[in-house]
Amino acid sequence: MPKPPPQAVSKPVAVPQPALPAKPQMSELEVLIRARYPLVYVISWEEQRVLHQVTQIGAKLNKSVFEWSINTGLVPAGTNLQAQKQRDAATEDPLVALGNVIDHVEPALYVFKDFHPFLKCQNMSVVRRLREVASSLKNTYKTIVIVSPMLEMPPELEKDITIIDFDLPRANDFTLLLQRIVEEVKGNPKLKVNINGQMKEQIVHALLGLTLAEAENVLAKTLVQHYGFGPESLEVINAEKRQIIRKSGLLEYYDTDENMSSVGGLDSLKSWLLKRSVAFSDRAREYGLPAPKGVLLLGVQGCGKSLMAKTVSNIWNLPLLRFDVGRVFGSLVGSSEQNIRRAIQVAESVAPVVFWIDEIDKAFRGSRGSGASTDAGTSARVFSTFLTWMSEKKSPVFVIATANDISALPPELLRKGRFDEIFFVDLPTSGERQDVFRVHLSKRKMDPAKFDLETLARTADGYSGAEIEEAIISSMFDAFYDKQELTSERLLSSLHQTVPLSRTMKEDIDALRQWAAGRAHPATSPDAGQEGQGQRRLEI
Question: 5 preceded by cis ω (within 30°)?
Fold first, then answer.
């Protein structure tokens, strides 16, 4: 008998599993509230924006929202001034208000505004009450959110309070604000608010780094001055933005007209910067290029390090923020750490930006060696925060730092990953000295062709760019007083009367050169260094 055909073995069919729903994006504040953290400390100047977010979270979680201030006491969030006249005046006392929080039964969120003075003065009654509240709320659906522009943290509450920084508004927030203002005023025939997508993007980008209230004020100012939004209003926004950022006392918008032609020599450094001028474009991101992190300019005083820092912003068409580290160190414990975090936050919010730290060796001198013990470790903590940010920052903030004394720089600052490159800026070569003379003579409305630049450069051997500039200015004073034209002879006389730093601090400069050899990239290429050099001089 023929064998029956083999039966086909049925394969199990894979049943598609339903996709898991995407997790909704939650803010850090909402996560902490959902996790039932009893006390949350939000550092922000925008208490209304924080209150708005807490109100949204309360609506999502079916929780009542209350707000407290020393003037209004504890009232439901959004209560108008007329209704607040019926408030319980006793709750203006923080101890009474905290007691009411414990007595409330239903799930609720409580926003305490400007509560930091009661923590700053070490009011032990309030501190003790907060610890009791923290213990009581752990088993409830209630959370206290303290909103303050500054951090005050008694050591007794360090384990009970969670601290978060409330980010500044993002581009989407400013887009919504701009759309709302346009809708409100578009019926006014005197105002022109119909703007295209490109202009809208430029305005939103200019507003980055401001609070919503500051942005609303400056947009209203542009409407008053120019009767609408347009290219001319960008200048108004940027000018107001510079003023607002300067209020912090930590960052300064630095206006500069310097460009490549303002700097003599340093061809290798210029080439490095020019190649990275396109790194912040969309095309570079599509290509896969990361934004450059930063560069350290190390070298002799007066040789153009700070001048190059000012030039970078114009080469790349980016704003230049000058960071004054000395202003970071406040007299109050904890304020220095808060200041550095705030400066970093502002810099990232306006990115892409050039972040300039002049003489970083002096700025963080106390973070190394015995100096750290003289300020209870504040310098070390501030420096640690700064180093961590430099390594992990994701925003396109280009840090350009200058330094003169390599011995004062902590070794962890110099490792790869913090800076893309370390350049050594030496005394100018003969060819570079001729360029320096051309730059400064042209800047002062004089024709460099009328001067013997080769002889001047040879006489100025060992002079820095700053010393050459000072010799030119001194000669101009003499010529102006004598009512005569400036000549090469006057310049030579002024140079002979000047003792350059390379002679008075020869040992220090030689030590700096010895360290930089093999450790730093020369800012001047070898070919440029040989240009115009006469007979080689040997050190034996």
Answer: no
- The 3-state DSSP class for residue 529 equals helix
Q: Are 432 and 528 in contact, with CB atoms under 8 Å apart? A: yes
Homologous superfamily of the 260-424 domain (CATH) = P-loop containing nucleotide triphosphate hydrolases (3.40.50.300)
Residue 381, pLDDT score: 78
Stated as kind and residue range, the H or E segment containing 18 is none
CATH of domain 28-165: 3.40.50.300
User: What is the distance between the alpha carbons of residues 459 and 496, in angstroms, rounded to a whole number?
Assistant: 8
Backbone phi and psi for residue 41, each to the nearest 5 degrees, phi listed first: -110, 115
- Give the residue among 498, 461, 455, 493 at the shortest CA–CA distance from 475: 493
Q: What are phi and psi of 493, to 5 degrees?
A: -65, -40
Q: Do the Cβ atoms of 149 and 342 come closer than 8 Å?
A: no
Angle between helices 231-246 and 197-207 (to 10 degrees): 10
Burial class (CB in 10 A: 0-12, 13-18, 19+), 99: middle
CA distance 372 to 364: 10
| 306, 402 contact by CB (below 8 A) | yes
Domain ranges of the chain: 28-165, 171-247, 260-424, 430-530
Each residue of 200-231: pLDDT tens digit?
Answer: 888 887 787 788 888 899 899 988 888 888 88
Global confidence as pTM: 0.67
The pLDDT score that the predictor gives to residue 535 is: 41
CATH tag for 430-530 (out of 1.10.3660.10, 2.40.128.110, 3.40.50.720, 1.10.8.60) = 1.10.8.60
One-letter amino acid for residue 30 of the chain = E
- 28-165 and 260-424 share one fold: yes
Phi/psi for 127 (5° steps) reads -60, -45
